[in-house]
Amino acid sequence: MRTLARFLVVLLTLHVAATLSLAQTKPGAIDITAHITPTGARPEPVRQFTIYVLTRSYADVVKEVSSSDPLPAREQFIDNLKCSKELKKWLKDHEVMDLTSPDLDKVITTDDIMNIPEFFEAYQRSNAGGVTAGIPKPKYHESDKESNPDKYQKQKDEFMSATRKFIDTHPFTVQGMELELTGVNPKLAWDRIQSDHRHKVAQLAPDTAQVKYLAGKAETDLDGRALITNLGAGNYWITSLGMDATSGDRRLLWDVAVSVLSGQTVHIELNNLNGTDARAATAP
After folding, report:
1. 256: left (phi over 0), alpha (psi -120 to 50) or beta
2. Are 244 and 253 in contact (CB under 8 A)?
3. Are 88 and 81 in contact (CB under 8 A)?
4. By the 8 A CB rule, do 205 and 229 touch?
5. Is residue 222 helix, strand or coil?
6. CA distances from 77 to 43, 68, 89, 110, 283 (A)
7. How far is CA 235 from CA 136, 205, 212, 229, 271, in A?
8. If you average pLDDT over residues 43-48, what whole number do you get?
9. Measured at the alpha carbon of residue 35, what is the angle toward residues 29 and 38, in degrees to the nearest 5?
């Protein structure tokens, strides 16, 4: 009798263990509802929109792709510019990349104008042609540089000294010189490099996410619902892979973390609160 009781206890224990083991390995699911609420309107279902479930945040996937082909460092970019060494040093010392900014005169000093060839030439051009009364004019001639170097250097020094004094006493004459710096402005090249890099990342990140981290995907129905099944227990991210869902004036991206337990269905609502404004996300 005791032997039978022990046998039944062992049998029951094995049954419970097997049941628990089965429950722990039973796949879970994510039941998703997606709605967007336009300004001043009611929530609208996001219809026929593909939603992906990843084992890694899409934001981290974007960082991974970006770091595999990083942008050149700012100093490296400046070193490769075709401009004077003085201008390169100035760019490195200042958090300025746009030399045509209307506020440039607020960061440029008299020393900068006198010591940086591009700034000096821009200042001269912006005040030439009788625009600025009293501005010093050079008396030296390039022909004297070899035939009469002493005279040349003396007159040049006098001109530079007079110009320095004029800038100090007429600071308003610095305004507008940024319009003469278009030809040496590095911002266009810098913006183009960053734009090309963002475009490349935007192309590669979705492919990388699906090849390396995809756990499941589904398309929403007319009610904005999607069910993704056969998910093991763990942490996942519900994402649109950089594709924005639109309704009215709202354009949203999603990259929402969720935990799935074995044998259970998690219900998640994608909406304005856990979405990111697509226009803000793509702004430079």
Report:
1. beta
2. yes
3. yes
4. no
5. coil
6. 47, 18, 12, 26, 22
7. 72, 20, 15, 14, 20
8. 96
9. 165
Pick from 92, 109, 99, 96: nearest CA to 177: 99
Distance CA 248, CA 41 (A): 9
Parent domain of 93 = 82-185
Q: How far apart (Å, rounded) are the C-alpha atoms in residues 7 and 105? A: 93
Domain boundary residue, one of 142, 167, 185: 185
Tell me whether residue 18 is in a domain: no
Mean pLDDT of 150-172: 93
Its sign, for the CA torsion 257, 263, 265, 266, is negative
Give 177-187 pLDDT, tens digit per residue: 999 999 999 99
Copy the structure tokens of residue 265.
């269905």
Please answer whether residues 258 and 231 qualify as being in contact, where contact means their C-beta atoms are separated by less than 8 angstroms.
Answer: no
Q: Does the pTM of the predicted model rise above 0.85?
A: no
